[in-house]
């Protein structure tokens, strides 16, 4: 059976789908805090950065993290910039470095990585904000912030990582391994 | 690995430092954004609008879903409240009417010289064959057979049987009861007997019979009980003349009377317990043709 689309169109299609997923992630994150009555809002973009970094390595992970973090900065933090750019970039790198040693087919590894990554990410942003603003924006001591906010959020993100990682993995498999390298 | 090379580590460190500087720079209070930032904001502003609008729409959607239950519950609560209020209004209306009836009855009782015993109607012959009422007063309360039963509106009937705590009343619409009555309006009062009409029972009308053909009686005349009789005191309102006619032989005149009492809605009545003052003789008959005590 011949190819339905040329290789270039397939890659664009993958980009498009990934962009769409990120877009939806941003929308959901932007909307979730307005809709849900609790504080434990999942971060779909962070999950995706960690999952994609895990799959594609530290460089692509860093670039994806930087790009996504920058958009998040502009959308949610502006006029201050850099918090999410830096934190998500580092998460992308960390996930990419972890992915070198672990099998990608199993979902359990990225799920655990998302759990740990979320926790580290939140603590990192907490400290970064404290460092640069000199204020405890959450108005909570770190230990209470960890037990009351970061751990539940890490847990929710880990749960949400199961379908999201499966979706991205399925998408990449659908496009073929050779094209993943182009990404 | 990319970042294991020394050069690449420097690149990473440089990027991190740049980002930290960006954070430090943008974190300070600024009058306005830099040109590149303004460009970025200009580019992302529509996206932010879109996000906000989407967020608001989704929020509204979810809010309406979450509020739906509240609204439904509130609706249910309000329905129950309306239902309760309606019941209360019905009760209040009932109490108001009862109050009005009691007030009328009290006024009536106070104006009367005779002794009256208030009684409640507890049952009504549903078949209408016998036109009877059951009252919640019996011989323990001093009720006796052949006592008159009236309301402030007029004649009701006569006690036909008594038990300890209840009594049976023959309604004036029952053909077995005959009451001596007269017209109130004519200069020369016309005497006659009022009794139930077997042919028009559904209209609950009564007939005043045994009047001479020359009797001056006409539709609209008021009929009251006469003083001639031992059961009903005189002057109790019976009803109003609707039609006047003469029997087939032209010997006796009779009138159809609309009773003043609505027998279908009777709830409280008075039993006349005091003896009726004696007047010159005329007979009143109870149901089965037995003569009832005469009055003078």
Structural class per helix/strand content of chain A?
mainly alpha
State the low-pLDDT regions of chain B, or none: 287-296
CATH architecture of the largest domain in chain B: Beta Barrel
- How many distinct beta strands of chain A? 0
Class inferred from helices and paired strands of chain B: alpha+beta
Largest pleated sheet of chain B: 6 strands, antiparallel, barrel
Description:
Chain A is mainly α and 183 residues long. Chain A has one domain (7-182): Arp2/3 complex 21 kDa subunit ARPC3 (Orthogonal Bundle). Chain A has seven helices and no strands. Chain A has helices at residues 7-35, 44-56, 58-77, 83-99, 108-133, 142-175, 177-182. In chain A, helix 2 (44-56) runs parallel beside helix 4, helix 2 (44-56) packs across helix 6 and helix 4 runs antiparallel to helix 5. The two termini of chain A are 25 Å apart. Chain B has a six-stranded antiparallel barrel with strand order 1-2-5-4-3-12. Helices cover 33% and strands 25% of the residues of chain B. Chain B has two domains: 33-111; 116-272, Beta Barrel (Thrombin, subunit H). With 296 residues, chain B is of the alpha+beta class.
Q: Which properties best describe this structure?
A:
heterodimer; A: 183 residues; mainly alpha; Arp2/3 complex 21 kDa subunit ARPC3; globular; disordered N terminus; disordered C terminus; B: 296 residues; alpha+beta; Thrombin, subunit H; 2 domains; 6-stranded antiparallel barrel; 6-stranded antiparallel β-barrel; rod-shaped
Concise account of the structure shown:
Chain A contains 7 helices and no strands.
């Amino acid at each position: 059976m011949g190819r339905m689309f040329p290789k270039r169109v397939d890659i664009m299609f993958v980009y498009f789908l990934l962009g769409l997923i990120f877009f939806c992630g941003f929308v959901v994150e932007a909307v979730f805090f307005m809709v849900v009555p609790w504080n434990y809002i999942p971060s779909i973009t962070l999950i995706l950065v960690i999952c994609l970094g895990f799959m594609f390595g530290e460089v692509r992970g860093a670039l994806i993290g930087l790009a996504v973090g920058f958009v998040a900065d502009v959308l949610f933090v502006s006029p201050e910039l850099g918090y999410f750019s830096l934190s998500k970039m580092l998460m992308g790198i960390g996930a990419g470095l972890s992915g070198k040693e672990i099998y990608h087919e199993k979902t359990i590894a990225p799920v655990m990585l998302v759990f740990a990554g979320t926790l580290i990410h939140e603590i990192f942003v907490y400290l970064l904000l404290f460092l640069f603003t000199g204020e405890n924006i959450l108005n909570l001591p770190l230990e209470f912030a960890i037990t009351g906010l970061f751990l539940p959020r890490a847990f929710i993100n880990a749960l949400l990582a199961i379908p999201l990682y499966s979706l991205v993995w399925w998408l990449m498999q659908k496009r073929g391994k050779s094209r993943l390298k182009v990404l | 690995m990319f970042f294991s090379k020394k050069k690449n580590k420097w690149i990473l460190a440089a990027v991190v430092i740049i980002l930290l500087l960006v954070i430090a720079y943008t974190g300070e209070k600024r009058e306005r954004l830099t040109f590149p930032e303004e460009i970025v904001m200009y580019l992302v502003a529509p996206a932010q609008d879109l996000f906000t609008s989407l967020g608001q729409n989704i929020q509204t959607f979810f809010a309406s879903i979450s509020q739906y239950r509240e609204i439904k519950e509130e609706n249910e609560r309000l329905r129950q409240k309306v239902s309760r209020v309606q019941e209360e209004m019905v009760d209040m209306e009932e109490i108001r009417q009862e109050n009005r009836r009691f007030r009328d009855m009290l006024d009536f009782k106070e104006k009367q010289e005779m002794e009256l015993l208030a009684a409640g109607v507890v049952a009504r012959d549903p078949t209408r064959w016998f036109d009877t009422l059951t009252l919640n007063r019996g011989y323990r309360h001093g009720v006796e057979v052949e006592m008159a039963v009236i309301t402030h509106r007029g004649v009701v009937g006569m006690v036909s049987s008594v038990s300890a705590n209840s009594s049976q009343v023959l309604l004036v619409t029952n053909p077995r009861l005959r009451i001596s009555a007269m017209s109130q309006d004519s200069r020369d009062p016309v005497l006659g007997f009022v009794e139930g009409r077997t042919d028009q029972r559904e209209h609950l009308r009564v007939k005043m019979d045994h009047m001479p053909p020359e009797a001056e009686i006409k539709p609209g005349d008021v009929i009251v009980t006469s003083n001639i009789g031992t059961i009903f005191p005189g002057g109790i309102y019976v009803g109003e003349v609707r039609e006047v006619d003469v029997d087939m032989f032209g010997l006796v005149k009779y009138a159809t009377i609309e009773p003043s009492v609505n027998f279908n809605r009777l709830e409280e009545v008075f039993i006349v317990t005091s003896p009726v003052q004696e007047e010159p003789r005329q007979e009143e008959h109870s149901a089965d043709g037995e003569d009832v005590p005469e009055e003078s």
